Amino acid sequence: MNDVIVDFQNVSRFFEEGRVRALERVSLKIYRGETVAVTGPSGSGKSTLLGLMGALDFPSSGEVKIMGSAITPDAPLARLRNEKIGFVFQQHHLLPHLNLEENVMAPLRPARVPLKEARAKSRELLDRLGLADRADFLPAKLSNGERQRAALARALINDPQLILADEPTGSLDSANGEVVVERLLRAAVGKTLVVVTHNPEISSRMGRVVQILDGRLIET
């Protein structure tokens, strides 16, 4: 594993003109193929860290590189996010007026993938995640577990190199949570997976655990 996917060099992130210090002097490298759990109490900076990894935010100081691309305001970050990063959040964020197939296809639109190809890719992912018979359903007709699996399919549709999951089982019961984690780990084979979680069972299944305390990183 020589390829660095996530590279933080002395990164700090402040808010409210420096009064709120979400991250302080964090240095971290994550390599291709790693599975990493990020743990820590609420308000410790976990989601801020994940937002920087996902090119959704910029550091106040220090340097963030994702797959070699510096995360700066003038960088083409929309393309990086769309083509190389897959996001899974605690809430599924499916579009309520689109069926599952259409929701999963949505990230392909900016790349102008032909409709027939997009439908085929969407159906294949839904099938792999046990949702083939739900492809035409609106999100409101699905269980929480099914919606979260559909959100995972959407995150995978562009075959991302980096998968970021922020409390992906936080809104699920234990049985559905186990299904989502198992599918997430299968999907991450050969990719890089970073999961923010409070769940020690999920952490124990990752290859590496880092902890955030008061904005500072502790390798565990």
Quick recap:
The protein is of the alpha/beta class and 220 residues long. 31% of the residues lie in helices and 28% in strands. Strand 9 and strand 10 form a beta hairpin.
Domains (count): 1
CATH topology: Rossmann fold
Q: Structural class, judged by helices and strands? A: alpha/beta
For the sheet with most strands, the description reads:
6 strands, mixed
Please state how the strands of the largest beta sheet are arranged side by side: 6-7-8-3-9-10
Oligomer: single chain
Number of strand segments = 10
Structural overview:
By secondary structure, the protein is α/β, with parallel strands linked by helices. The protein has one domain: 3-Layer(aba) Sandwich (Rossmann fold). Helix content is 31%, strand content 28%. The protein contains 7 helices and 10 strands. A 6-stranded mixed sheet has the order 6-7-8-3-9-10. Strands 2-1-4-5 form a 4-stranded antiparallel sheet, covered by helices on one side. Strand 7, helix 6 and strand 8 form a beta-alpha-beta unit. The longest helix is centred in the middle third of the chain and has 14 residues. The chain is globular, with a radius of gyration of 17 Å. The model has no long low-confidence stretch (mean pLDDT 88).
